[in-house]
């Protein structure tokens, strides 16, 4: 299989490049990657040219820009329109939902409350219409092991006394980048299609997550500043997808254990 990974310079993209056991072509926008191709997903003609040149059997689309509708929504649509029959896995987000007290299942329609969530929700809808056999993989906060993920960097900044705080009322289901990459590659080679939920099974607050990272990295977890923040409980019910995967999606308390 020949795999095209968009957004390959990002945290998830780099992990996919590292772990994929096939011919992988990284597509980047601003950060050049060896053996890669430059790709501006906002440019449909450019997307068409790249896909025709690479001739991928599969595409994992991770590229997004949180504050840019063109990149996040239109870019994903361009990739779907020009996929040329390649198997498509689109990485979406729990931000397509608003807060509530119970987890969201895969069959539930998006109800975003942020522009980013709306962009991802629009992309999901269009992709399912354009390429019904594509996989929509909704995930949550992505955490790594090398200090480069956003949550790890935040812990280091706040532990060093920089301004900011962790929210106690922001609840998510964090996933390890290695687990997520393995699950996406497994989905790519499977016969599944439609919406899947690929996040960790453990719901934690941003403060609880920060403290787990701090303990792992040798910082004082009690020294991390916190504020309630706007209540935002968004949990993905991943049991249906997990039951069909060999990849084990670990809880945060496990993958952040020392």
From TrEMBL:
Residue span(s) of domain RmlD-like substrate binding: 1-227
One Pfam family it belongs to: RmlD_sub_bind
Source superkingdom: Bacteria
Family matches, as InterPro entries: NAD(P)-bd_dom_sf (IPR036291), RmlD-like-bd (IPR029903)
Cited PANTHER family: NAD(P)-BINDING ROSSMANN-FOLD SUPERFAMILY PROTEIN
Protein name: Sugar nucleotide-binding protein
Protein's organism: Kribbella sp. HUAS MG21
């Amino acid at each position: 299989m020949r795999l095209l990974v968009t957004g390959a310079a990002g945290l998830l993209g780099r992990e996919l490049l590292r772990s994929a056991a096939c011919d992988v072509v990284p597509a980047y926008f601003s950060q050049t990657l060896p053996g890669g191709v430059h790709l501006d997903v906002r440019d449909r003609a450019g997307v068409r040219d790249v896909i025709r040149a690479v001739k991928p059997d599969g595409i994992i689309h991770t590229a997004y820009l949180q504050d840019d509708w063109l990149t996040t929504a239109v870019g994903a649509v361009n990739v779907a329109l020009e996929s040329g029959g390649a198997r498509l896995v689109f990485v979406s987000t729990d931000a397509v939902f608003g807060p509530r007290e119970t987890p969201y299942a895969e069959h539930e329609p998006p109800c975003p409350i942020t522009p980013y969530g709306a962009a991802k929700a629009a992309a999901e809808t269009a992709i399912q219409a354009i390429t019904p056999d594509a996989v929509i993989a909704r995930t949550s906060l992505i955490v790594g092991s090398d200090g480069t993920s956003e949550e790890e960097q935040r812990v280091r900044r706040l532990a060093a006394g920089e301004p900011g705080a962790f929210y106690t009322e922001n609840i998510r289901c964090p996933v390890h980048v290695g687990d997520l990459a393995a699950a996406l590659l497994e989905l790519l080679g499977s016969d599944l299609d439609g919406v899947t939920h690929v996040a960790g099974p453990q719901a934690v607050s941003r403060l609880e997550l920060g403290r787990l990272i701090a303990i792992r990295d040798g910082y004082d977890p009690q020294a991390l500043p916190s504020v309630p923040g706007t209540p935002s409980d968004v949990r993905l019910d991943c049991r249906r997808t997990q039951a069909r995967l060999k990849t084990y999606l670990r809880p945060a308390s496990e993958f952040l254990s020392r």
